[in-house]
Amino acid sequence: MRIGIVVFPGTNCDYDTFWALKLVGLDPVFLWHKDTNLINVSAVILPGGFSYGDYLRAGAIARFSPLIDKIFDFAEKGGLVLGICNGFQILLEMGLLPGAMLPNNTNTFICKQVYLKVENNDTPFLRKYSIGEILKMPIAHKEGRYYVSDSELVKLENKKQVVLRYVGPNGEIDSKFNPNGSVNNIAGVVNEKRNVMGLMPHPERAVEKLLGSDSGIRLFLSFLN
Amino acid sequence: MSKWWVKLEIFLKDGILDPQGKAINSALHSLGFEEVEEVRMGKILRLKIEGETEEDIRDKVRKMSEIFLANPVTENFEIRVEKICE
To answer: What does the pLDDT average to over A169-185?
Structure first.
């Protein structure tokens, strides 16, 4: 299965994502953001990095790249679109996912391992995980404070669109395990149709025990038929 | 057609934590400026832009702010048409 990895000026997790997809036997291809054709890929991944230097707001400029219109149509037709870190920020700016990202409440760039709880697995991306499972993955971002208005947050929770939450090592949901000030410790969300997912942690950096965790590998395995 | 300087001010909406503003506020308190109650830090963009009238300019900047320059989920913006420059 061919999976497209979108590359913008400033993307830096494209090769890690490529490696993770290769590792599980998929056929990754790079898609330049100025291309206008998705060359029949089965799914699209917007990888991490600093597209356009995060100028103005993370993802704000990347969102107007030519390939983005095609990705929007692809997602509307039910195509699988995954955004990791900067990719998540781009999906929010595109409006494919609800909410927005703000600078971390710590005022700092944070790069560390975190624990995540799978809150909902009713999405193709998480079908190989169980509800309540605790995962370990790194985060590496400065604008990762997920925000939605209070009324939107209620809707998001009711519709079970929150899929990953920052937790303690034993699954404790507590503000002390919230690295960046995200509302309700949210680390990952899906759209209502559940074919678009965004997450701030980096599953592609957690695909081998050697890297400190292989919690992320099943996310890439989920693309296999 | 004239050219105008327009100042666009973008701030986080009220109630949304602004950690930079908060840090600056604490620093001001350390310096003895206890009377400062709150600091909000935003962005200012200055645009040199061509248009017929002030209203025309304002409409254009409002449009670009709504779709791109400000994020409607988290930010409010204010447009100040400064002066005709050419």
So the answer is: 97
